[in-house]
Amino acid sequence: MCRLLGVVSRKTAPLGELLADDIIPFLALASEHGDGWGVASLTPDGAVASVKEPAAGTSDRLQDTLVVATTDAALLHLRMATPGLALRPGNTHPFGDTQVAFAHNGDFSPASCLDDVIGDDLLVGAEGDTDSERFYLAVRRRIDEGAEPPKAILDTAADIQALATRFASLNCLLLTPAALYAYTAHDPYSDVIRRRGADFFALNYRRGADSVVIASTGWPQGAPLWSTLPEGHVLEIRRHDLSTVVYA
To answer: Using CA atoms, how far apart are residues 52 and 42, in angstroms rounded to an integer?
Structure first.
């Protein structure tokens, strides 16, 4: 399983500064989730820029990225690889390009259950062989065909739950030039929940005067500062004014 962290801010600043209250406890989780890290952020011209590495989040390259990535919106991912999936750049999150970035926490099988939704033209360009990348490609297919990001995420998650033989979690973050989106859904009877507890897959968000942060669990995130995203819902954090909308 993996860990997710995202931020949208009123100001543009180095990413480490935007996440000053959360970056240290988040990166501490790399001691367990140490199979890769990735950062996607919006550049001053509104493009999505991504950096990722199949290495632990203690890497000097990640520390450098937190200093040099000056942005007002970003997502971060720490990977714990599913057994059998290689540790290589193509399997490291986020997935995407200059228009969108996507990171997933969880797993489902078979990964091929989404292939008919994705289509051969997108599948041929896949970087790796993870179920997470197929989740992204199915969302991307819908966005490219005109769906708004919340609907694209919700419809793809519904496909997975209908077609997969099993899933643990479908938690994900999606970054576009307009907004950051977060989705949460998990199987309450999965082995992960039995081992880690009912709140392991919760996504919590914190509204401040100048930023909104969304995060996986792993450090104190109690009320009233933090709110929990309801199961099966998408949170949209709009970049232009920090307004938030929850979709079901």
So the answer is: 15
pLDDT single digits (tens) 49-81: 999 999 998 889 999 999 999 999 999 999 988
Domains and CATH numbers, the chain: 3-247 (3.60.20.10)
Global pTM value: 0.96
Find the helix packing angle between 149-163 and 131-144, rounded to 10°.
130
CB atoms within 10 A of CB 136: 28
Counting beta carbons within 10 angstroms of the beta carbon of residue 209, is it exposed (0 to 12), middle (13 to 18) or buried (19 or more)?
exposed
